[in-house]
Specification:
Largest sheet of chain F: 11 strands, mixed
CATH class of the largest domain in chain F: Alpha Beta
Structural class of chain A: alpha/beta
Largest sheet of chain A: 5 strands, parallel
Distance between the termini of chain F: 63 Å
Number of helices of chain F: 10
Order of helices and strands of chain F: HHHEEHEHEHEHEHEEEEEEEEEHEEHE
Helix content of chain A: 40-55%
Helix content of chain F: 25-40%
Shape of chain A: globular
Strand content of chain A: 15-25%
Distance between the termini of chain A: 76 Å
Chains: A alpha/beta, B alpha/beta, C mainly alpha, D mainly alpha, E alpha/beta, F alpha/beta
Strand order of the largest sheet of chain A: 2-1-3-4-5
Mean pLDDT of chain F: 85
Order of helices and strands of chain A: HEHEHEHEEHEHEHEHEHEHHHEEEE
Strand order of the largest sheet of chain F: 4-3-5-6-7-8-9-13-12-11-10
Oligomer: heterohexamer
CATH class of the largest domain in chain A: Alpha Beta
């Protein structure tokens, strides 16, 4: 008997949830956000979420878009695809948002792509995975530079230095895997030979085994593709193993945190990064410099913290969306079309030139190569 | 000294002890005898606090033992030598003795403990020989000695022994009983629970006979030694033995 | 050859970390028959406490270590007192779920307290690695191995030489007899918990310099420690130690010689084989009891 | 009040009320979000049901049950996605595969006991998960598998929303019925007997090892079905969804709901699915609250919620009298 | 082959023949070269002081332990390679010292579980409920009810076994054991925890079971029961067979007395 | 060895009593169908008796019950354990049989020794026992008890008065155990022979069998120059020395560690508060062969709960001379009038003899005098026959009752 009561209780609970779903009118543009604010990808999601909140506030302070205020509804995916799906459904069906920004990671993005496509809501992802926009899906865009471009930037640099054989070490998650894929695929194009490819677990405490193996294969340089904290351990291990080879890292660690974590071992590491990290080092003529300085100033003022490269993805996404929202009158189709036709949008990440074939819109110019020296970034021209 | 009134113990729905009363006076050696399943062990479990679900009254030196945990009962002055020895096999003989003196150490009576070591080791010279051996490597009889010695280390005013003869060869059993008698002669009050009725009664002052959780006989040891009921408590009775014309 | 030695070095380093964690788990198991799934979180607490005490507050190293250990012990004590002992359950799975709940709780608390970013802690001594037979050995690895041996030795000493330690062994061997000897086994359980979580914290303290510490670092470490304890045979101290080293070496050799991606799988397959062949672990505590 | 009713007719009443509740909820709820949550509850219920049979009745803890969930999901994804097999055929293969794996793994593993069994299943789960991640040419690796087709049956298209809700809950209902039938049969009696006392069950001639293996396979099958439903619902799968923490969560569902209780599985799955949704409001405190709730429930209702609620109910009734 | 046939086939050969059984536990002999045989249809008491090895012997006969040496011949078959459930199927049933009923199940269900080896519905049968399944179930329930009737428990058939008083639980264990149509029934301390009246009723039940042709072996500490209903008594002490004979012979056996009472 | 002077804590004694009561009840319930039925008819088991007071829940046992279960029906041990069987006159046509196991004898030996010890008997004493045939059993008990103490015992034998006196004098007897009637007879005899008590070494006389008033005691003491001590016993179980006087001579100490006394209202069966006079009900606490549970003695007594000046822990009773039943005490032996009538019936072969009974003095000793109304049924023409009948009847009654019997024929009453 009690069973019945319990199932009734559950029913009532769910009903109550239903009823609580207010029907407040859309005198605002509701924009959804899904970020890995906690969990293992929180280093991505947290600044992204903060940036989005900041931007929305800023836009609203400036009177909104076409006089309509924006409202952000942000959920935490914890980096879990299932949670992302839950969040996207909430955004699509409960909050009925106009567009979604995020998620932060490739799997979470891929997990929700089908839902936004079906619901026909524009999504601007902040994840880097190539799979997100290739093949192109009508409603899915992304602001983060693809690994494709990052790898290209790295290989370009190697080629210039005359490196022939490389060892590849990637983290066993979607970021590393996607990077590995690009590293292996593009090597030939730059005349490089991958002599050893290895991986490490995201939470591993020691990578000397893999490095020893790579060292034994005799490469000219080592590329490590991962996100914090693993690459910092790799950097330390490389120093400790006295491997005297150039170490390349990915844009995934392009943050002051990496230098903090790797400490002395960070010196000499070369990596591609968005310009955000090296704003101060950029030429005054760089078209992105002003935007970057703006962003950094705002972020600093609001959160009393330095920006990371990742928050910029959200910054660009919000700006892109804001641009597309203008004159759309809240019509999702119009927003999508406006996004797809965005050209020459200067963002923190680079210059966005969207088209029906390219929903990322960035070129290798979005990356600059930097070297870490004495605990700070040095631009490699 | 120890007084048990109308004790009833049960495990779940099974009652193992049905209202048993018994008492031990200072300086006495009391034997509780009975076949297995008679409820002897349950009774002891209740006395030393290992069993909580009992009703009735157990008092030691006029303080009720209700609700007391085994360690506080040890501190109150009752030490038990559990059935099957239960020595700490991975510890050395000496360490086993130290464990026995745990409450003494906690009372900061180190000097007394040293004295007790001497006393106990002189009482059981074999333990002195094996002081550094692991207790698990001792023979059954030696383990029993160790178990007794360990219990003595807590300076009990009442020493409770649960089936010290179990599983031992007859010769060793004799030795154990001699030891118990010596202890009694030295003034230790002893409650001895035994299956080996004759041996236990020979050294006891008084005895109790338990049968299926009930006390069926008690009296001085000499009375019980001549009592055929004791035998029947173990081997049962043939109803044919009784006079046939009864009950009409 | 040089590589093999290098693999062994790395294996032993990670193995020593697993060993310290496994020793803590095993020690708790031997006195309470409970596996603490929140153990990894105590490792996290230890590492994060080092970040706070040593890096942020700049306390002297020994003081910071002591403080981090004390924090681990205190938390373990509170956990035992308020969660484990309050639970009326006799079913071990319920206690296990409680520890799972505790691990989530601690992780959440850690996130609040230290934020989501990873932190790095400097090595106890120089960064320069030492070269042995052409293989590099990190000084911190030596620290870790020494720490692991020291800890296992310390616990060994505690259990074998001190009265309280022996009492704890007594409780573990035969709780009934220990009770009857006047040893308060409840207090021993609390103590075992505190020591065990203290071990976890120590593991965290030692590994903080070589890996990066973050609020969610504990889960996987706890898991590996659990595996190590299992391989060694639950309840056996040196078994846990050996299990940890073995697991580390297997992983390292697996990564070096076969595939770095499958290294965990290789280690786990070997574990399963060990379990099938010796269901009680490699060093299953032999029954010293004669009857 | 229901003492007079036979167990069977009581079960029928319970089932019909449950069925009615499901249909009512499905019809009334328009919001896709809620439908989707309930769909997840349904999928989790399937997982918990299988595991509950294994843990609650056969007394075997599995810390790697997510592996079967994953095997079901990946098998159907790969077969229907990569090889364009009909999803329904893929389902049969997935379930068959999971059962086969369960048989092979269970044969040696179920001979272990206690924590060692937990370790064995945990190891198995980890290995399977690593395979999902590393065998990227087939599984899509850590980035996940995309391209899972939408379920169709004739004119019906099971897309997110009501149709899927009803599909999942129909499966749940069927699973509940099957579990009940099993529990009421000779096999189920033997199972419950193992639960009450393994020694005695052995002594009356129950081949406990074989029976445990059977239940392990059954639980694997239910897990695979759940995986199938998950894959075709989310249309994207990645190894993270089938990791160790998912296994632990499944065990938690069973224990929190109440072991050896079919409704307990439902309750546990419901609670553990709903709780994070509700806790979103706690933002940063979510994990703390979740951990606390878990601990408190276990500390004060060690028998799980079903038993706990029943006890409270009985206690309050006694008080009233 | 039905039980009836089996019974006829057995003629007068002993139903249980234990030959030189030896069992070591960590080098210690728990059982030392024990031999005896039990004729069909009798009640055989097995007594001995604590630690004599009675339960170990039971466990070896029921296949829970494998003997280190010697063999058990049950009904003409060597049981060495047989698993516990095969032995049950062959006709050995037992009860436990501490009631081990399935507490959450009703008495009827308990007895039905007892019939496990005599029924065959498996997973698919349960799911599909083919007509033969229902027929089998119906027959099983009828038989279970008749057993409960026989043991006088029919009124409690639908109560959870764990809720019954100990006396009835003990009886129920016997009913459950009988459900597997045993040729040999091993009773491990059936009277433990019972009061005098219950013990007396138990004795009557055992006699009634004996009248059904079931051979019984019984470990019992309540000697008035053991001596009262046994046709033959075997005494174990320290893992060895000490004596064997009628209850009266045993009661007057000096060696037995010494074993029990000490020298 | 606990004795009268050994201080025993009240709590200890209460504890001991409870222990013994419980085991007695357990044994009685387990082994004796009679007791089990009594328990069952009151819906009780021995477990219901958790304290001494709980004994009130149990029904009484009457003398008649002993006869009803003649001969061995109330034995709680198999016959082969019994080492001694005593017979006492019963109430109906069957005597009551009591049996003793080895342990019983041992216990009673100790009890008697304790009682003797309480009146100062030691191993220096010479103990002479002189009891009538009906109390011969007690004679054996006193012998055993005396021997246990180490006293030199002169056992009971059927000597003539003068031989007894000779032994008393020549053997330098210090302690004499006897009945009041015999003591008086002896005194009379001695004074008739002009013997002086000073010739004797007699220090004390222990009187058994009936309550003796203070006056008589004083009189006897004065005449014999010996202290008089009273002992209380039951002829059924277990024998003498259930209660004994101490040096203070104020009430009899009941050995309540072995025998549990109660005082009830003989009419209603209600337990009376301490200090009230009523019928004495006894429960054996250590008897093995024949446990008595709430046995109504028919004796009237009053319990004295105040501690005794002698320091003995045993409770005292004042033994009253009146009776709660139809028994007469003749020469220390209880004689049931009802049973006598039955015997008379059998001996005379008539259905309903009309008679009166009284205690009479016969040749210095006590006897039962029966005044039989001569009616038609009895009347015989031949006086000789009648005399013969009376003679055989007297002999038969004497044998059955253990006391001398004389029958006086009376005319039919008006």
């Amino acid at each position: 008997m009690i069973m019945k009561r319990i199932s009734m209780a559950i029913a009532v609970l769910v009903m109550a949830l239903l009823a609580a779903d207010g029907l407040y009118a859309a005198s605002v543009y509701k924009i959804g956000g899904i970020f890995s604010s906690t969990g293992r990808a929180s280093f991505l999601g947290d600044p992204e979420q903060k940036t989005m909140e900041m931007m929305i506030e800023k836009i609203n302070a400036a009177g909104g878009i076409d006089g309509v205020k924006l409202e952000a509804v942000i959920y935490d995916s914890e980096g879990d695809p299932a949670k992302a799906v839950s969040a996207v459904n909430k955004l699509l069906h409960k909050d009925k948002v106009l567009a979604i920004i995020g998620p932060s990671t490739t799997p979470t993005t891929l997990a929700i792509v089908n839902f936004v496509e079906r619901a026909q809501v524009p999504l601007i992802s902040c994840a880097a995975g190539v799979k997100i926009t290739s093949p192109v899906k009508p409603w899915v865009f992304k602001t983060a530079q693809s690994d494709l471009l990052a790898v290209a930037a790295v290989y370009q640099h190697m080629k210039a230095r005359g490196i022939k054989k490389i060892g590849v070490l990637t983290v066993s998650n979607s970021f590393g895997e996607s990077g590995k894929h690009q590293l292996l695929n593009q090597a030939k194009d730059f005349g490089l030979e991958v002599v050893q490819a290895d991986s490490f677990g995201a939470k591993d405490t020691d990578m000397t085994a893999q490095l020893t193996k790579i060292k034994a294969a005799g490469p000219d340089a080592i590329v490590c593709w991962g996100t914090n904290p693993g690459p910092a351990v790799v950097a330390k291990n490389v120093k400790q193993l006295k491997i005297d080879l150039p170490l390349y890292q990915s844009h995934g660690v392009a943050s002051p945190k990496f230098i903090e974590l790797a400490g002395d071992a960070a010196n000499g590491i070369i990596l591609p990064t968005g310009k955000i990290l090296v704003t101060g080092l950029l030429d005054g003529s760089d078209p992105q410099r002003a935007i970057l300085e703006d962003y950094q100033k705002d972020y600093n003022a609001m959160y009393n913290a330095n920006v990371s490269g990742f928050g910029g993805y959200a910054y660009d996404a919000v700006n892109l969306l804001a641009g597309a929202l203008k004159g759309s009158g809240g019509d999702k189709n119009k927003i999508r079309d406006a996004l797809e036709s965005t050209q020459g949008h200067m963002g923190t990440t680079g210059e966005f030139n969207f088209s029906a074939q390219d929903h990322n819109g960035l070129s290798p110019k979005a990356f600059v190569m930097v070297e870490i020296q004495n605990g700070t970034w040095k631009l490699i021209k | 000294m120890l007084r048990i009134k109308n004790l009833k113990c049960s495990y779940g729905s099974i009652t193992a002890v049905h209202g048993v009363s018994l008492s031990v006076k200072k300086g006495e050696l009391i034997s509780i005898i009975g076949a297995n399943g008679a409820g002897k062990s349950s009774l002891l479990l209740a006395v030393c606090g290992l069993m909580k679900t009992w009703s009735g009254e157990i008092s030691f030196e006029d303080n009720s033992l209700r609700g007391m945990s085994p360690p506080s009962i040890v501190r109150a002055g009752i030490s038990m030598v559990p059935e099957g020895r239960q020595i700490f096999s991975p510890l050395s003989v000496m360490d086993n003795l130290k464990m026995g003196a745990y409450t003494m150490y906690r009372k900061r009576m180190k000097a007394e403990v040293e004295k007790d070591f001497k006393m106990v080791l002189s009482m059981f010279p074999i333990l002195r020989e094996r002081a550094d051996q692991l207790a698990g490597t001792l023979s059954g009889g030696e383990q029993q000695m160790l178990a007794i010695a360990r219990a003595l280390m807590a300076r009990p005013r009442l020493l409770v022994l649960d089936e010290p003869s179990m599983g031992l060869a007859p010769k060793i059993v004799d030795m154990i009983f001699e030891t118990i008698e010596t202890l009694r002669n030295q003034g230790v009050t002893i409650l001895l629970v035994e299956q080996n009725a004759r041996a236990a009664l020979k050294i006891a002052d008084r005895g109790y006979v338990l049968e299926t959780g009930k006390m069926v006989l008690q009296g001085s040891a000499d009375e019980l030694l001549v009592d055929d009921d004791v035998k029947r408590a173990y081997l049962g009775q043939d109803y044919g033995d009784f006079y046939d014309g009864r009950g009409n | 050859m040089q590589e093999i030695i290098q693999y062994l070095f790395s294996g032993i380093t990670t193995g020593a970390i697993y060993a310290v964690i496994a020793v803590g788990l095993s020690m708790l198991y031997s006195s309470t028959e409970l596996i603490n799934f929140a153990h990894g979180e105590f490792v996290m607490v230890g590492a994060m406490a080092m970040v706070t005490f040593w890096v942020h507050l700049a306390w002297p190293l020994p003081l910071a270590i002591l403080a981090a250990m004390a924090l681990g012990c205190t938390l373990g004590l509170l956990f035992e007192r308020f969660a484990i002992r309050t639970a009326k359950a006799s079913n071990p799975i319920v206690l296990v779920i409680i520890t799972v709940g505790a691990s989530i709780f601690l992780r959440g608390t850690g996130m609040l307290a230290w934020g989501k970013d990873p932190f790095s802690v400097p090595s106890f001594s120089s960064h320069e690695s030492i070269e042995i037979l052409g293989a590099a050995l990190l000084p911190q690895s030596i620290w870790i191995v020494l720490g692991a041996i020291g800890l296992a030795g310390g616990i060994h000493f505690f259990l074998k030489k001190t009265l309280t330690g022996k009492a704890m062994v007594a409780c573990a061997v035969n709780q009934k007899a220990a009770w009857l000897s006047g040893i308060p086994s409840e207090r021993m359980a609390v103590l075992a918990f505190a020591i065990s979580t203290g071990c976890g914290a120590i593991a965290g303290i030692f590994i903080a310099p070589i890996t990066m510490s973050s609020y969610d670092m504990g889960t996987i470490l706890g898991l590996k420690g659990f595996c190590a304890a299992m391989i060694g045979g639950l309840g056996s101290l040196w078994g846990a130690f050996a299990g940890g080293i073995l697991l580390g070496v297997l992983e390292s050799l697996g990564a070096g010689l076969i595939s770095s991606g499958l290294k965990d799988a290789i280690a786990f397959i070997l574990l399963l084989l060990i379990l099938y062949i010796r269901p009680g672990g490699l060093f299953a505590a032999k029954e010293a009891k004669r009857f | 009040m229901s003492d007079k009713l036979s167990a069977r007719s009581r079960a029928r009443i319970e089932n019909s009320i449950f069925l009615a509740a499901v249909i009512l909820l499905g019809l009334v709820t328009e919001n896709t979000y809620y439908l989707q949550i309930m769909t997840f509850i349904g999928i989790n219920t399937l997982l918990a049901l299988g595991l509950n049979m294994l843990m609650g009745y056969a007394g075997q803890v599995s810390l790697g049950h997510a592996a079967f969930y994953g095997i079901g999901a990946y098998a159907t994804a790969i077969l229907s996605g990569t090889y364009a097999l009909s999803p329904w055929l893929a389902l049969i293969c997935a379930v068959g595969g999971a059962v086969l794996v369960a048989f092979i793994v269970g044969l040696p593993t179920l001979r272990l006991s206690g924590y060692y069994l937990g370790m064995g299943t945990l190891g198995f789960g980890m290995i399977v998960n690593i395979l999902f991640r590393e065998w990227s040419s087939v599984t899509g690796g850590a980035s996940g598998f995309v391209g899972i087709p939408v379920l169709e049956a004739g004119p019906m298209v099971f897309m997110s929303g009501k149709s899927y809700f009803f599909l999942v809950w129909a499966v749940v209902l069927a699973a509940i019925l099957i579990c009940r039938r099993i529990l009421r049969s000779r096999m189920g009696r033997a199972l419950r007997a193992i639960h009450d006392g393994e020694n005695a069950a052995l002594a009356v001639g129950v081949n406990t090892h074989y029976l445990k293996l059977k239940v392990f396979m059954f639980a694997a099958a239910l897990g695979a079905v759940a995986g199938f439903l998950y894959a075709h619902f989310v249309l994207f799968i990645s190894p993270e969804s089938f990791g160790f923490m998912v296994s632990v969560k499944m065990v938690t569902m069973v224990v929190i709901g109440g072991m050896a209780s079919i409704w307990g599985a439902l309750l546990g799955a419901g609670l553990l699915t709903l709780l994070p949704e509700v806790l979103h409001g706690f933002a940063e405190y979510e994990m703390i609250v979740f951990g606390l709730v878990l601990m408190l429930v276990m500390i004060f209702m060690p028998q799980g919620l079903t038993r706990g609620f029943l006890d409270i109910y009985h206690a309050s009734r006694k008080k009233r009298q | 082959m039905t039980n009836q046939d089996l019974r006829q086939a057995q003629s007068q050969q002993p139903i249980l023949d234990v030959q030189g059984l030896t069992k070591l536990f960590g080098g210690v002999k728990a059982q030392d070269n024990i031999s005896f045989s039990i004729e069909p249809g009798i009640v055989c008491g097995l007594i001995g002081p604590n630690g004599a090895g009675k339960t170990t012997l039971f466990n070896m006969i029921t296949g829970i332990y494998a003997p280190d040496n010697g063999q058990v011949i049950f009904n003409g078959r060597n049981t060495r390679k047989m698993a516990v459930h095969q032995l049950v199927k062959a006709g050995i049933a037992r009860t436990f010292q501490h009631v081990e009923l399935f507490g959450s199940m009703t008495l009827l269900e308990n007895v039905l579980v007892g019939m496990h080896v005599r029924t065959r519905c498996g997973f698919w049968g349960a799911v599909t409920r083919f007509p033969w399944v229902n027929r089998e179930e119906k027959a099983a329930v009828e038989k279970a009810e008749s057993l409960l009737e026989f043991t006088g428990l029919i009124d409690d058939a639908h109560k959870p076994a764990g809720d019954l008083p100990v006396g009835r639980q003990k009886t129920a264990e016997i009913a459950r054991a009988l459900a597997s149509d045993p040729l040999l029934l091993l009773l491990d301390e059936p009277a433990a925890g019972l009061n005098a009246v219950e013990t007396e009723n138990l004795g009557q039940l055992i006699r009634a079971v004996k009248d059904r042709g079931v051979t019984m072996m019984l470990v019992e500490h309540d000697m008035s029961l053991a001596m009262g209903i046994s046709d033959k008594v075997i005494v174990l002490d320290q893992g060895r067979k000490l004596a064997q004979g009628t209850p009266r012979e045993i009661q007057n056996d000096e060696a037995v007395m010494a074993a029990y009472l000490g020298g | 060895m606990p004795n009268g002077t050994n201080p025993m804590d009240t709590a200890d004694k209460e504890q001991l009593k409870l222990e013994r009561l419980q085991s007695t009840l357990n044994r009685a319930y387990k082994n004796v169908p009679f007791h089990r039925k009594r328990f069952e008819s009151h819906n009780l088991t021995p477990q219901a008796i958790g304290a001494l007071e709980d004994i009130e829940k149990l029904p009484f046992m009457k003398r008649a019950d002993l006869g009803l279960h003649y001969p061995y029906g109330l034995f709680a041990v198999p016959l082969r354990d019994i080492v001694r069987i005593h017979t006492a006159p019963g109430t109906g046509d069957r005597p009551s049989i009591s049996g003793y196991t080895q342990a019983d004898l041992l216990i009673w030996k100790k009890l008697v020794a304790r009682s003797l010890n309480a009146c100062g008997v030691t191993d220096m004493d010479i103990l002479q026992i002189h009891l009538p045939a009906g109390l011969a059993n007690w004679g054996r008990d006193y012998k055993d008890g005396g021997e246990l103490l180490g006293a030199s015992v002169i056992p009971n034998s059927m000597l003539s008065l003068s031989k007894t006196l000779m032994v008393l004098r020549d053997y330098k007897t210090t302690t004499l155990v006897t009945t009041l009637a015999f003591a008086e007879q002896l005194t009379d005899h001695m004074f008739e022979r002009e013997r002086h008590p000073n010739e004797l070494n007699l220090k004390r006389i222990i009187l058994v069998g009936e309550p003796v008033t203070k006056d008589i005691v004083k009189d006897l003491e004065a005449r014999l120059h010996a202290d008089i001590w009273q002992h209380y016993g039951l002829s059924e179980i277990p024998g003498p020395a259930i209660a004994h006087e101490c040096g203070d001579h104020c009430g009899l100490h009941i050995c309540d560690d072995h025998i549990l006394p109660e005082i009830i209202d003989p009419a209603t069966g209600q337990t009376l508060p301490a200090g009230t006079a009523g019928e004495l009900v006894l429960t054996t606490l250590s008897a093995r062969a024949l446990p008595l549970v709430r046995f109504r003695t028919g004796d009237m007594a009053r319990l004295i709960t105040e501690p005794c000046g002698c320091g003995s822990p045993f409770i005292r009773m004042e033994w009253l001379t009146e009776r709660a039943d139809d028994y007469m005490i003749i020469s220390g032996i209880k004689v049931s009038q009802e049973q006598t009538a039955v015997y008379l019936k059998q001996a005379l072969g008539i259905s309903d003899p009309d008679c009166d009974m009284e205690r009479i003095r016969l040749n210095g000793t006590e006897a039962l005098g029966i005044s039989l109304v001569l009616d038609d049924a009895l009347f015989s023409d031949e006086i000789k026959n009648l005399e013969q009948l009376m003679f055989t009847t007297e002999r038969s009654l004497t044998e059955n009752l253990g006391v001398p019997v004389t029958i006086r024929l009376m005319q039919k009453r008006n």
